[in-house]
Amino acid sequence: MRNKLGSNFEQILEENKHKIYRICRIYAATPIEPEDLFQEVIFQIWKSLPNFKGKSSIDTWVYKIAINVCLRSKMKFEKSNNKTERLDAIHFTPVTELIDHFEEEKYKYLKECIATLNESDTSIIVLYLDELSYKEIAEITGLSENHIAVKMKRIRNKLFECITPKMN
Amino acid sequence: MLEQELKNIWKNSSKTARISIETDRLVQEFDTNITNIQKKIRKRDVREISASVFGILIFSFLAYEIPFPITKFSCLLSILWFAYVIYKFRKSNQQNSSEKLSLPLKEQLTHKKQLLQQQLKLLNSTGYWYAGPSFITNFIFIIGLRNPADYNWTNQIAENLLPLTVNAKVGTIIGLGIFYLLVIWVHKIAAKKDVHPILKSIEAIQQQIKNE
Q: Which domain holds residue A128?
């Protein structure tokens, strides 16, 4: 049982680590680093895994935990500046040789524009940018598909208004 | 075009770091973490409960030893109160540890809000369930103290410790009153500083979610 859980966990991490990291990069705010948030998300995945009933897909389940943990961290940060103790089993190696500085600049603009959105819209846009369907976003956020569609129209406009001048 | 470009920028944003995870080691570290968390929780429970257990033992002894009926009665009330405090702490700790992070965002916020509201209620009502009853039982205890000689009771330690004169009784009651007011104030501050801001943030996000 423990072994099966371990191998499932390994598979979940392997398949989802990049999407988790992307979300963590958006929500992390000094002194909390994306790496701290990433660690917390996978810790919560590990803790919650035995209770995973398979009612939703594992991807959707991981997104729910990632969004909830990141949002929780943001709210907790206001009252505490505690720094997380880093685990030795996770290594982040910067990929300097592959960095496209032009691409990095564009990401910076995207991040700045996402930062202008409120928490609810941020959680929706990060899921949308990850190319999730409205149905999946609705499942993760607990809203209806129609509600997501209406919100997305407004969020998209706001995001484009912010980013288009920067990109040009 | 811009939309797809943004999605590509987004997708590529995680390529700035190579993430490698040693799962076996990670699982070990998590297990250690969970054990440490459980140890901390156990320590906290023991700390909170031991004060009440100590109180129960002291007041049981006093109820047995002291001959004054009203004071005896107050000791029994104190024992009941300590038992209630143990129950209240345990219930609150169980509720606070029931975070459900795999729920959809909207439900998770509702769940978290309920937990925080309970916490807020607990902190703001300290006067009713903690300080008030405790002060009343202490008050009855002190008022019930009589002249030991009238009851043929001799206990040097108790006689030296208990406020038997009117002045000592008044002084102790005032001191206790100030102490319990301080307790209420500290809890109100904790509610205002720690719980209220998070509750407000949750309500703000819930409102954002509701808006179209």
A: 97-168
